[in-house]
Amino acid sequence: MYRVMSLNVLCWGEGENCIENRIPLVIEIIKKYAPSSFGVQEAHKKWIDALTAGLPGYNYVGVGREDGKEDGEYSAVFYQKDRFDASDYGNFWISETPDVPSKGWDSACTRIATYVKLTDKQTGESYVHFNTHLDHIGRQAQINGAKMIQEKAASFGGVPVVATGDFNVEQGSDCYNTMVSANMADARFLAPDTDDCYTFHWFKPDEYHDTIDFIFVDKATVRPVKFKVVNEKVNGRFYSDHYAVYSDIELV
After folding, report:
1. Which of 8, 39, 146, 228 could be a cystine partner for 166, CB 3.0 to 4.6 Å?
2. 84-106 pLDDT tens trace
3. Strand ranges in the chain using DSSP code E only, listed in sequence order
4. DSSP letter assigned to residue 252
5. Going from the N-terminus, what domains does the chain have, and what CATH number goes with each?
6. pLDDT tier for residue 182 given thresholds of 50, 70 and 90
């Protein structure tokens, strides 16, 4: 059994929700739910350094989206370093030139996807974890981003795949429908133990909420057993303007 998680950590924040106040809350949530691997969105270098320091049991793969090094937000994948060997990892930009930092189609921002193949050191089982943060404006960029993830996932030749992220779309959108076409499906609807909570609340859940964070899986090789939205506070405070989502999966 493996637990995969996705969390948009919110790059900065203001007032009581500033990054300095929320770093320990995010770390506490991740420690509490102890995912085997997790993807983050809006995690610039300060976040990456804080998560690395606060979660010494994890390594990560990923780069800053603006320069392919450390500038800009990462869509990094963290994984339990004592449990997994990491291989075949990389990044691609959601654009017509995926090998270099770039904006594509109608995208408002530079967008990136990161992936890593994780092999369990004890069982020899492997899965590939993709993570991304798709554009909030460009509909074509969203759809093409979903297609690019699908195509790259297929290149692993049947190795089980999970894809986490803030997709900036809701269920039923063209981008979402692209992600659940062919071999992929939404873990929320496959897991027998699931919930229907929203994921984005902007710190005002009574006034505003959407479901834009997802865990997609290869339905032929990944069996979600549980799907949950971590709709709780830490010490009475929100850890981000998004709730984390996680799925417990079995590899078929």
Report:
1. 8
2. 999 999 999 999 999 999 999 99
3. 2-8, 37-41, 58-61, 77-80, 84-93, 112-120, 126-133, 161-166, 184-186, 213-218, 222-229, 245-251
4. -
5. 2-251 (3.60.10.10)
6. confident
